[in-house]
Design goal:
This protein is mostly helical and about 150 residues long. The protein has helices at about 5-10, 10-20, 55-60, 75-85, 90-120, 125-135, 135-145; strands at about 20-25, 25-30, 35, 40-45. A hairpin with a 6-residue loop joins strand 2 (about 25-30) and strand 3 (about 35). Helix 5 (about 90-120) runs antiparallel to helix 6 (about 125-135). The radius of gyration is 24 Å and the shape is flat. The two termini are about 35 Å apart.
Length: about 150
C-alpha cells in the first residue's frame, strides 16, 4: 500500500474530471493498447473527494482530527476514539514522541555529515571539522569516499 499526495497534483485532469474517490490504474502497452497483468495492482484514493462510497467514508474518518462515528466502520471508529481520547492516547503520544526523537537524531546526523562534506570540499582541517560537527574523526575520514 502506497499513500501519496502526489497523484492528485500530478494528474489534475484525471482527478478533476472524474470526481471519484478511488482510481484503479492498469498498466498498458502504448503501442498495442494491451493491458499488462504483471501482478501489480495500483489503486489511488483521493481523500479530497467524497463520492458517497464506503471508501470515501473511511477516508473521511481517517483524514480528520475530529472524532466521528460511522455505522459502516464501528471498529475503526472505536480504534480512533481509543487512540485519540481513551487509554491508547498515552501510548500513541509515547510512540509519536519516540518516532520524533529518532527522526530528529537521524536528521541531525545527516545534516552534520552534509556540513562535514562541505567543509572537506573547502579544505578545512579534519580536527576542526570534528569540533564543529561533533562527528568522530573516523566518520569524517569515511566521508572522503563520498567525494
Amino acid at each position: 500500500v502506497l499513500l501519496t499526495e502526489k497523484f492528485a497534483r500530478n494528474q489534475p485532469s484525471v482527478v478533476d474530471k472524474s470526481g471519484k474517490t478511488i482510481y484503479h490504474i492498469d498498466r498498458t502497452i502504448r503501442e498495442t493498447g494491451t493491458t499488462v497483468n504483471n501482478g501489480l495492482h495500483e489503486i489511488y484514493v483521493n481523500t479530497e473527494i467524497n463520492d458517497g462510497t464506503d471508501i470515501a467514508g473511511l477516508m473521511d474518518l481517517l483524514n480528520t482530527a475530529e472524532l466521528k462515528t460511522d455505522s459502516r466502520f464501528p471498529q475503526v471508529c472505536n480504534s480512533i476514539q481509543y487512540y485519540k481520547k481513551g487509554k491508547g492516547q498515552k501510548n500513541m503520544c509515547e510512540v509519536v514522541e519516540q518516532f520524533a526523537k529518532e527522526y530528529a537524531k537521524e536528521y541531525a546526523i545527516q545534516e552534520q555529515r552534509k556540513s562535514a562534506l562541505e567543509m572537506i570540499r573547502l579544505n578545512f582541517d579534519n580536527e576542526l571539522i570534528c569540533r564543529i560537527t561533533r562527528l568522530p574523526l573516523e566518520e569524517i575520514l569515511a566521508l572522503y569516499k563520498d567525494l
